[in-house]
């Protein structure tokens, strides 16, 4: 019996050792920068194939009020503690101004009341989180396209940087602050709006009050919450860690169509 | 016919070069797709039916819950709830266990990293699709699928099928001339995986892409929603695992060396009756 237990213990030890070595080897391959670079080359292929085969104006499916999720999950920041945000929240965003600047002919700024007078769109859409779940919600907001037309983009403008109020990570250099970026194809897509309402009510803090982006054909992390400023740029390198967004700086795909 | 039966081994051509190359690339791609897929699943280890998640009513979930002053792993499948500590929901080395859907040995990388899981998954998804298209194009054109994979009429006879099932249950495999062709169960398994399960994997994978859904809304309609597509993706992956397990067992019990040689060099030995020369 003891011999049997010993043998079993020994076998277990060998199995654990072998699997440990195997896992360590797998992880070392995963952590190799060259391997990572090769794996990430697939993103460019996916983006190009999507842009070539999917109609740039194709709309994401819109649902009926009966489809709206009662348990729409809020992810990432759900109550930003940043001082400038807290100050605005205290007065119900009365002093809030959305700034649109950068490579534009006419830098603009809008209060929430002014934004509400801009051309708007209401849509009931599916929100797909990178984690795998989906929730359905109704969004009303100012269409981004007409706002950009008012500001008049300069010819060099290729992307929009969406600056946000919330810090998802405490860092000394400020790279923990959330931001996102989209190209002009998505910026001018008819369903791309700056939402100030969710399910018929003012946008809740957990979902990005006072203003969040809706980019309906991409994953949830592109739909930046707590927007403070939209800046037209020619290149993404100068912002954050240079990859075009908070999660992109941490390895996630800039093109989040899958 | 002579009474004293002698048999000799002859090597027949079994697998074409494209089949052999795509088979091994497929093995690599599917292994990494599975392990990175489980990593992605672990980011939200719950499955739903329909368009949206119903967070308090998944049909499958793996969670870590407190029981007294210890944590346990719990797997819920419909109305059934099982304790699965160490495997699903809560696993890892004794004393360093953590909440996670599938255990570290099943995911790439072993530690929790959705971002890396996605990179592996989408890279090998492209390799898998291109490799699969090459296999299909060549083998549809050269007639391999029609000639060797579609069951012949005699194989579909119910008596023959029952006989085959009985033989399989006793791990008795065709010999001689009959071994020149795949048996009907084998053909059915290959056809099912190649033309049903793997294409469903690709289509449900595409359906999880919000961009593809905007361009091809019929895909979402076919599967009844993005969360249904995620569920079907998981079920088909489970079927692929089941197929691979049976496939490997069959390879082992029906002559591992002969089978491996045929998938490497293309030559497969069968025994035929006749005078030794």
Topology:
The complex is a heterodimer of chains A (258) and B (277).
Chain A: H1 2-31, H2 33-53, H3 83-90, E1 98-102, E2 108-110, H4 112-115, E3 120-128, E4 134-143, H5 144-151, E5 159-167, E6 177-183, H6 184-187, E7 193-198, E8 201-202, E9 212-214, E10 227-233
Parallel strand pairs in A: 1-10
Antiparallel strand pairs in A: 1-2, 3-4, 4-7, 5-6, 5-10, 7-8, 7-9
Chain B: E1 7-13, H1 17-42, E2 46-47, E3 60-67, E4 70-77, E5 80-83, E6 89-91, E7 98-100, H2 114-141, H3 144-149, H4 158-169, H5 184-207, H6 210-215, H7 217-223, H8 226-253, H9 256-264, E8 267-273
Antiparallel strand pairs in B: 1-8, 2-3, 3-4, 4-5, 6-7
Helix pairs in contact in B: 1-2, 5-8
Structure, described:
The complex is a heterodimer of chains A (258) and B (277). Chain A is an alpha+beta fold. Chain A is built from six helices and ten strands. Chain A has helices at 2-31, 33-53, 83-90, 112-115, 144-151, 184-187; strands spanning 98-102, 108-110, 120-128, 134-143, 159-167, 177-183, 193-198, 201-202, 212-214, 227-233. In chain A, the strands form two sheets. Chain A has a five-stranded mixed β-sheet. In chain A, strands 3, 4, 7, 8 and 9 form a five-stranded antiparallel β-sheet that branches. Chain A is elongated. Chain A starts with a helix and ends in a 25-residue tail after the last strand. In chain A, 39% of the residues are buried. The relative contact order of chain B is 0.16. In chain B, helix 5 runs antiparallel to helix 8 (226-253). By secondary structure, chain B is an alpha+beta fold. In chain B, the strands form three sheets. In chain B, strands 2-3-4-5 form a four-stranded antiparallel β-sheet. Chain B has a two-stranded antiparallel sheet with strand order 1-8. In chain B, strand 6 (89-91) and strand 7 form a beta hairpin. Chain B contains nine helices and eight strands. The two termini of chain B are 17 Å apart. The interface between A and B is large, with 49 and 43 residues.
């Amino acid at each position: 019996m003891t011999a049997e237990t010993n043998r079993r213990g020994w076998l277990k030890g060998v199995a654990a050792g072998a699997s440990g070595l195997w896992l360590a080897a797998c992880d070392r391959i995963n952590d190799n920068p060259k391997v990572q670079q090769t794996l990430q080359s697939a993103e460019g292929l996916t983006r190009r194939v999507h842009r070539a085969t999917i109609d740039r104006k194709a709309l994401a499916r819109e649902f009926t009020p009966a489809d709206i999720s009662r348990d729409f999950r809020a992810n990432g920041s759900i109550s930003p503690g940043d001082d400038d945000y807290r100050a605005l929240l205290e007065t119900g965003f009365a002093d809030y101004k959305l700034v649109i600047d950068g490579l534009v002919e006419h830098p603009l700024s809008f209060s929430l009341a002014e934004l509400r007078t801009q051309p708007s769109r209401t849509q009931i859409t599916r929100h797909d989180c990178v984690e795998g779940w989906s929730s359905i919600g109704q969004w009303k907001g100012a269409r981004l396209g007409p706002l950009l037309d008012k500001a008049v983009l300069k010819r060099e403008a290729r992307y929009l940087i969406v600056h946000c109020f919330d810090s998802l990570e405490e860092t000394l250099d400020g790279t923990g602050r959330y931001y996102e970026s989209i190209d002009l194809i998505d910026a001018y897509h008819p369903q791309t709006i700056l939402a100030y309402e969710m399910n018929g009510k003012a946008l809740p803090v957990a979902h990005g009050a006072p203003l969040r982006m809706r980019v309906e054909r991409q994953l949830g992390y592109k739909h930046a919450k707590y927007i403070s400023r939209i800046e037209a740029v020619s290149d993404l390198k100068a912002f954050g860690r240079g990859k075009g967004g908070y999660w992109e700086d941490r390895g996630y795909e800039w093109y989040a169509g899958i | 016919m002579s009474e004293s039966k002698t048999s000799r081994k002859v090597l027949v051509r079994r697998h074409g070069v494209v089949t052999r190359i795509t088979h091994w690339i497929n093995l690599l791609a599917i292994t990494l797709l599975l392990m990175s897929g489980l990593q992605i699943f672990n980011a939200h280890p719950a499955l739903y039916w329909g368009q949206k998640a119903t967070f308090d009513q998944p049909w499958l979930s793996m969670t870590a819950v407190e029981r007294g002053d210890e944590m346990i792993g719990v797997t819920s499948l419909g109305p059934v709830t099982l304790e699965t500590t160490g495997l699903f929901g809560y696993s890892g080395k004794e004393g360093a266990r953590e909440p996670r859907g599938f255990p570290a040995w099943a995911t790439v990388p072993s530690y929790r990293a959705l971002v890396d899981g996605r990179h592996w998954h989408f890279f090998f998804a492209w390799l898998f699709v291109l490799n699969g298209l090459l296999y299909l194009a060549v083998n549809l054109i050269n007639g391999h699928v029609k000639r060797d994979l579609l069951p012949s009429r005699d194989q579909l006879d119910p008596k023959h099928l029952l006989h085959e099932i009985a033989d399989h249950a006793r791990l008795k495999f065709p010999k001689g001339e009959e071994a020149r062709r795949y048996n009907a169960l084998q053909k059915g398994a290959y056809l099912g995986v190649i033309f049903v399960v793997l294409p469903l994997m690709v289509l449900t994978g595409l359906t999880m892409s919000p961009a593809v859904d905007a361009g091809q809304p019929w895909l979402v309609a076919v599967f009844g929603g993005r969360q249904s597509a995620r569920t079907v993706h998981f079920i088909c992956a489970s079927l692929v695992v089941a197929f691979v397990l049976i496939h490997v067992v069959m390879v082992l019990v029906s002559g591992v060396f002969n089978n491996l040689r045929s998938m490497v060099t293309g030559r497969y030995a069968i025994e035929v009756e006749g005078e030794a020369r």
